[in-house]
Design a protein that fits this description.
This protein is about 45% helix and about 15% strand. It is of the alpha/beta class. It has one domain: NAD(P)-binding Rossmann-like Domain (Rossmann fold, 3-Layer(aba) Sandwich).
């Protein structure tokens, strides 16, 4: 019942997609800091390699770059093949790779629909399917393997931006998580989802006027619209991910847990000045 036992992920092997920046990088860093070996993947090879090298040095741990485009089966199978060359088992899969597209309703293009759905939904399903043999190697009733899907509060509430395919895709991720969890729990694999709110990421920066400049975005101003008065931190998302990946989360199955500073439940009060 001690903290070190309840929340330990020491010695675990994890794959974090979209791990070269943003929320994926935050989760990967949290895993590395607590004794896990972490593989990260992202579409841009140079950035993925650089992040893996930096995190390895920062945490004196093994972070391995496996860049790939997870919006199609060719990219998914390439990633899984290279992963199998390096390890014969996987304890934690974090499906974080995602895309978004913004355009007015009357002008929203098919490419903006397909790109987002292929990455955010199809990629989650088929990557999980392809790595099931790796997840089952060490999975036991006492110590199940874990799948953590990264959804979004925009899959729960009406998005504030004209990102029509993004909100729909994240709602699909939440429901897919429940359906997959019902099947995987019988195989000693636990699946849950996290629905993050505002975090200091490239994706949100493009939406709030920062143009993708994460360092240059006024995150204090963005956070003032949140009940907690700030945007999320690496500790927030990494802490929840570690809970779900550790003994402490072994009886939590098929849930979508918000990590949003109270935005979903308190947004109305904030708008009314309550």
């Amino acid at each position: 019942m001690k903290i070190n036992d309840l929340f330990s992920i020491d010695g675990k092997t994890a794959l974090v997609t979209g791990g070269s920046r943003g929320i994926g990088e935050m989760i990967a860093a949290g895993f590395l800091a607590n004794g896990a070996t972490v593989y990260i993947s992202s579409r841009k090879a140079e950035q993925c390699d650089a992040t893996a090298a930096r995190l390895s040095e920062q945490y004196d741990a093994e972070c391995i770059s496996l860049p790939s485009d997870l919006s199609n089966l060719e990219g998914i199978d390439s990633l899984v093949g290279r992963l199998k060359e390096r390890t014969d088992s996987l304890d934690i899969l974090v499906n974080n790779a995602g895309a978004s597209w913004g355009a007015p309703l009357d002008e929203f293009p098919e490419v903006g629909w397909d790109k987002v759905m292929d990455t955010n939904v199809k990629g989650v399903f088929f990557l999980t399917q392809r790595v099931l043999p790796l997840l089952e190697v060490n999975a036991t009733a006492e110590d199940p393997s874990r799948v953590i899907n990264i959804g979004s509060v925009d899959g729960i509430q009406t998005p504030g931006f004209d990102t029509f395919s993004y909100g729909a895709s994240k709602a699909a991720v939440h429901h897919l998580t429940r359906q997959m969890a019902a099947h995987l729990v019988r195989r000693n694999i636990i699946a849950n989802a996290i629905a993050p709110g505002p975090f200091p990421t490239w994706m949100l920066s493009t939406g709030v006027g920062g143009g993708g400049d994460v360092e240059g975005t006024d995150w204090d101003a963005v956070g003032q619209g949140n009940p907690r008065g700030r945007v999320g931190s690496a500790e927030d998302i990494a802490g929840l991910s570690i809970f779900l990946a550790s003994r402490a989360g072994a009886y939590t199955v098929g849930e979508t847990i918000t990590c949003d500073g109270g935005g979903i439940i308190g947004g109305g009060l904030m708008r009314r000045g309550g």
